[in-house]
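Hi U.,

Before I forget, here's the chain from the pilot set. I'm dumping it here mostly so it's searchable later in email.
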Amino acid sequence: MRRLYYLTDSVDCAEKVSDDLHRIGVTDWNFHIMSKNKKAMRDHKLNSASSFFHEHDGIRSAERGAIIGLIAGVLAIASFLLVAPDLAAEYRTFPLLSLLFTSGVLVAFGVFLGVIYGMDFENIKIKRFHKQLEEGQYLLMIDVKKTDADEIITALSGYADVTQAGEGHSNVGPFQTA
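Structure:
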């Protein structure tokens, strides 16, 4: 999906945009608002961005951890097969079960460490809006299908207090840099 980014200085304007987007069919699942002022967002019942999915880099780091854990699991089994080839030949199912179990444990451990590591960093896609968020602005993130993007852009162009801040893809790859 395509993600559209908009900035506004006012929580009231963010609330109006939210209401208008809901009227034209954009669900809370596809629309999030990020701000330093969490209290104002709660008071206005705005759909706040998720700390895990939107604000921090937990997902991207978890994916990296899973890949690293899988590689570590494959290397552990490969080294076992090289060190004890006679044992592997005698018990044919043992290496397969051992590969699956070891890889699963290492992938889970990699995901766990990745999430913990990623929660210390700002989301790679949000990093460019850090200054505006620190100044108290509200970042509106709208995920739309490519075919519906023009309708949303047209609907939001009527707001004087809302500025288009960019666009991108809603997914973040594990080795994406920006």
